Amino acid sequence: LISLILVSHAQGDYYEDYIFFMDDEDLIPLTPVSHPQGNPKTVVSIKPNAHVYRGERVIFRCDMHGLVDTEWKYHWYKNDQSLGHQLYYRDYDRSCRYHGYHRFHRRHRFFQDCSERRVQEFIIWPVSDFDSGDYTCRGVLSHSQSSEISDAVTLIVSERPQVVLSVSPQSWLTEEDSVTLNCEVTDSSTGWTFSWYKDYGEIKDSHGEIMAGGSYHLSDSSLIHKGVYMCRAEKRESSLRFLSNHQPVWITGKSPPVSMIINPNRTQHFTGDSLLLSCEDQSNSTGWTVRRYTHSEGVLDCSRWGSVTGSTCNISSISTGVYWCDSESGENSNPVNITVHDGDVILESPVHSVTEGHLLTLRCLYRNTNFSNLQADFYKDGSVFQTQTTGEMIIYNVSRSDEGFYHCKHPERGESPKSWVSVRGPSGLGGSSSVEAAFSVLMLICSVVTASPYLLVTIILLLKCYRAR
């Protein structure tokens, strides 16, 4: 004789039916079957986060709390309004197929041809401000049985953050100066990771690993560090990566192998001016090319914006940018920042670095020179430095403290753009320093002799007495 025994056991919100077969000898248990006590509860989850940025991909999922049943179908709501077919989603069990596509406000919406839809998950991509709101779902098993509606989960869509790359203390350096690049995200959230790029290539450390962290420090800069830097910010759980602005870093070498000669010899020019740039080689390198960097176009060779003859670049109408010479072997000149101004006033300043102890001469130049009032105020780093009635300013014994950004201002004609003036030490001149030093001593002696021939005779007699001893 075999009997069937049903035993019910409550477990929280559910009860379980235990079915036993009983023969004359033993009880044989079968697998218990769970049933909800009342309507089951659904739960909405959002990946990667409930707070996302425009353009990200967001995945919504509706789960039946404590139940796994493939027969459940799911209805979705946004702000208590049925979403219906206003979804595009992926169907993980492949029971439905995509059959249509159309464009709606620049967004792609996909629909499914399904006789029985089970939309447990759906995707919004790319997400926009329109998609912000409270999302809920409900499970339906049959006309007579459905779940409770889930608690609402709020999706917040924010404007994409900006990644700002800045440089401190400045982007124009002298060789061996230190500089720090900082990468910051205009967003209050945390968990950002960073990577660094120079001239569009990844920066790696001595172990071949990609440089990371929110700052990049160079304690002893050299010419190889010259270039255009970028950083990238991302979060591990996000599908988006954010690139910063381009930040050039220009480094003036102490003894570059080549000099770029500019004619006319100044860094500021009026609109419509023509210009001749040539590379004066000191190291017998071949294949010198004049290059230019602008924020809008990046790095381009002279052949793209001028006419090339050997190592000379002829420009009929110059543009604002940073210019330098590059060789096929990778050597380069010091960069020169050339500014084109459509106003009436420009500043004439040295194209290359000024040596400590030498003269520094700055002049205010005007588009129309037919006027007598040449008075000008000269500014250094934004503050008035000198006022001159001749339109010319001279620093007789220049030092590193005179390095900075200069511009001039005329009371009637306006002001010039700013130009960077760099100062280098005597040791940076290499072989030419001894020549100029000897020349300076010779000039001093000539001046003394011209002023007092009796002093020269006295010096000679003193030398003879010293040798006689």
Overview in brief:
8% of the residues lie in helices and 46% in strands. It has 469 residues and is mainly beta.
Summarize the topology.
Blueprint: E1 3-11, E2 14-22, E3 27-29, E4 33-36, E5 42-47, E6 51-53, E7 58-64, E8 73-78, E9 81-82, E10 97-104, E11 107-113, E12 121-124, E13 133-140, E14 153-158, E15 163-168, E16 172-174, E17 179-185, E18 193-198, E19 201-202, E20 215-218, E21 227-234, E22 241-243, E23 247-252, E24 258-263, E25 268-270, E26 275-281, E27 289-294, E28 298-301, E29 307-309, E30 312-315, E31 321-326, E32 336-341, E33 345-348, E34 354-355, E35 360-366, E36 376-380, E37 383-388, E38 392-395, E39 404-410, E40 414-415, E41 419-421, E42 423-424, H1 431-451, H2 453-468
Parallel strand pairs: 6-14, 16-23, 25-32, 34-42
Antiparallel strand pairs: 1-2, 2-3, 2-4, 5-7, 7-12, 8-9, 8-13, 10-11, 13-14, 15-17, 17-20, 18-19, 18-21, 21-22, 21-23, 24-26, 26-30, 27-28, 27-31, 29-30, 31-32, 33-35, 35-38, 36-37, 36-39, 39-40, 39-41
Helix pairs in contact: 1-2
How many strands, which pairing sense, and closed or not: the largest β-sheet?
6 strands, mixed
**Name of the CATH superfamily of the largest domain:** Immunoglobulins
Helix content: under 10%
Low-confidence region ranges: 1-21, 88-116, 428-451
What's the CATH C level of the largest domain?
Mainly Beta
Query: Which descriptor suits the 3D outline?
Result: elongated
Mean pLDDT: 78
* SS field, number of helical segments: 2
What's the structural domain tally? 5
In angstroms, what separates the terminal alpha carbons? 143 Å
> What fraction strand?
over 45%
* Total DSSP E strands: 42
CATH architecture of the largest domain: Sandwich
CATH topology of the largest domain: Immunoglobulin-like
Briefly note the structural class of the backbone. mainly beta
